[in-house]
């Protein structure tokens, strides 16, 4: 007869089992990876103008995404005639052969890429009370509406200009931290989403990569899927970037005395000045009731002279934004560097009360400078007495980007962490067209980009102005889609088209996203995908979107806090706190 195990033996075995289970649960889940890998690459040895033969497209297919068609177009104007050289590889029936690409399970991968060119834990912020619904006086936003669902049987093409601005999220954060709810018109979903890292790998030796991933919505029970379509630009280092000619146009009108706005402008610009090289130049124009030059183009090595000019500024008079901006462009034109970066940086609250005061009127006057190669960055300061419409539209017409600074940390994000994205343009008139397969997708809705819509027939019309893309920039778009029951295959073909800023050659790439690419559960999708969807739904709630009636702030708070812990990310903790005080 066998001896029965004694009590101490049983206790030992039980403790061992519990320890093994605890160790297993502490391991990081691989499908929560935040990285992505390419699946379709249009290869080229460098970021140079393509030759007479368009680049051969190489597809790679890590398990889930099929590339069925890649097209490259080179558009060259010859004596007024547009010559189109194109090479197209079609394979709509079979999957592309997989390439050897290191991947992480569940992570998205680029649909196409273009020709070459702390460990410390973070604690959540303290939770505040729900903000008031009141709005500061004299704040101007524009209501662009909310995109509806569209039946693919009616229109299966979705075309829009990319947007890399982040001003809307920064302004909403300022409202909430001041104890106020942001007005719905202040919310642009795409600028919320693009305020966060998308987790895309920088594709080597390429201009751009297209990414796509998708999963079932955790907020709906009607079969809705969320798709994230993203574009990642190549990175360029500060050491090898072209020299820059920057012209600061600084608002010193009386309104800039509020909340120490001018003081924050000075501190923010000092951060940028300290990043300049000796071969860069900086000029300064200020405007109040009129405009004047404070500093003619000065080498970046002469920091003392530049900073003394900045810190000598005092507020004065009314607000002649038109005169200040035009004088700034005049100075930028005189300091123009033929093979360099040429940019006007406007620091203002966007208010104009002398001269032309409309965004359209001023924007029309600067368009000619943008066409001549001088880009514009607009940076907003202040909250009460602030014109968001002016700042955004000027950036759009000035072939530039729009940011909002309310803290020195935001200034560091703009001028240190993302300085190359702020200064160096790698793609002009970048636009996306998503072609949904009618046999697979029943209806779709683009969440955001309401003021970036482009007519479908204008996707290849290169006279239509679209977005400018900076080095290292990322842009993502979120779609809600409902599939045809039981359908399998191609969900959409994603097309990206842009103009090279140096050669002015127009390029186009595309890739295909299929049902095989969909992740079966939202919670097993990549963490950055989950974050993008959570952010988009938060923006939907803030703008009172009809389509977010099944989403609750409490659910978003729980998901944001979980993601902040999993990603160990201070900015995601800040998001979770903003959601908490929005309830």
From TrEMBL:
PROSITE patterns: PROKAR_LIPOPROTEIN (PS51257), VWFA (PS50234)
One Pfam family hit: YfbK_C
Coiled coil: none
Ranges of Polar residues composition bias in the record: 27-38
SMART domains the UniProt entry points to: VWA (SM00327)
Record domain VWFA: where: 245-423
Region (Disordered): 27-63
Protein's name according to its UniProt entry: von Willebrand factor, vWF type A domain protein STM2315
Organism of origin: hydrothermal vent metagenome
Lineage, top ranks: unclassified sequences, metagenomes, ecological metagenomes
């Amino acid at each position: 007869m066998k001896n029965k195990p004694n009590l101490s033996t049983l206790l030992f075995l039980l403790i061992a089992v519990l320890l093994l289970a605890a160790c297993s649960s502490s391991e990081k889940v691989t499908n929560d990876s935040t990285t992505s890998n390419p699946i379709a690459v249009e290869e080229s040895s460098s970021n140079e103008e393509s030759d007479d033969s368009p680049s051969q497209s190489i597809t790679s297919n890590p398990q889930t995404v099929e590339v069925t068609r890649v097209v490259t177009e080179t558009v060259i104007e010859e004596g007024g005639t547009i010559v189109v050289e194109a090479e197209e590889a079609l394979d709509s029936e079979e999957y592309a052969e997989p390439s050897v690409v290191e991947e992480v399970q569940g992570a998205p991968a680029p649909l196409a890429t273009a020709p070459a060119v702390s460990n410390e834990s973070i604690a959540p912020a303290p939770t505040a009370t729900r903000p008031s619904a009141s709005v500061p006086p004299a704040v101007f936003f524009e209501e662009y509406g909310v995109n509806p669902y569209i039946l693919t049987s009616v229109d299966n093409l979705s075309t829009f200009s990319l947007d890399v601005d982040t001003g809307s999220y920064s302004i909403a954060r300022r409202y909430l931290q001041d104890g106020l709810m942001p007005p719905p018109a202040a919310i642009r979903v795409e600028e919320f989403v693009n305020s966060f890292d998308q987790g895309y790998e920088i594709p080597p030796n390429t201009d751009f990569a297209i990414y796509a991933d998708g999963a079932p919505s955790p907020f709906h029970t009607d079969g809705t899927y969320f798709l994230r379509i993203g574009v990642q630009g190549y990175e360029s280092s500060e050491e090898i970037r072209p020299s820059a000619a920057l012209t600061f146009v600084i608002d010193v009108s009386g309104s800039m005395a509020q909340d120490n706005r001018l003081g924050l402008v000075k501190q923010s610009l000092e951060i940028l000045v300290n990043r300049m090289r000796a071969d860069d130049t900086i000029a300064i124009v200020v405007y109040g009731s009129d405009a004047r030059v404070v500093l003619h183009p000065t080498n970046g090595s002469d920091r003392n002279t530049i900073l003394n000019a900045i810190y000598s500024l005092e507020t004065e008079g009314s607000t002649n934004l038109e005169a200040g901006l035009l004088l700034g462009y005049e100075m930028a034109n005189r300091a123009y560097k033929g093979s360099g970066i040429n940019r006007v940086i406007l620091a203002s609250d966007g208010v104009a009360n002398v001269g032309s005061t409309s965004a359209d009127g001023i924007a029309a006057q600067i368009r000619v400078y943008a066409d001549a190669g001088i880009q514009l960055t607009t940076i907003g300061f202040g909250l009460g007495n602030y014109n968001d419409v002016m700042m955004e539209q000027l950036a759009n017409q000035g072939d530039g980007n729009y940011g909002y600074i309310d803290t020195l940390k935001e200034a560091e994000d703009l001028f240190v962490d993302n300085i190359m994205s702020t200064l160096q343009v790698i793609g002009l008139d970048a636009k996306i067209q998503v072609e949904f397969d009618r046999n697979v997708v029943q209806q779709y809705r683009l969440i955001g980009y309401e003021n970036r819509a482009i007519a479908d027939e204008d996707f290849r019309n290169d006279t239509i102005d679209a977005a400018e893309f900076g080095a290292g920039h990322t842009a993502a778009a979120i779609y809600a889609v409902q599939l045809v029951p039981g359908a399998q295959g191609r969900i959409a073909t994603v097309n990206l088209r842009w103009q090279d800023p140096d050669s002015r050659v127009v390029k186009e790439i595309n890739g295909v996203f299929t049902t095989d690419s969909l992740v079966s559960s939202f919670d097993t999708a990549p963490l950055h995908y989950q974050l993008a969807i959570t952010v988009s739904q938060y923006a939907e709630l803030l703008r009172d979107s009809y389509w977010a009636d099944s989403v609750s702030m409490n659910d978003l708070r729980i998901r944001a806090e979980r993601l902040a812990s999993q990603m160990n990310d201070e900015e995601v903790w800040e998001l979770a706190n903003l959601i908490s005080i929005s309830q």
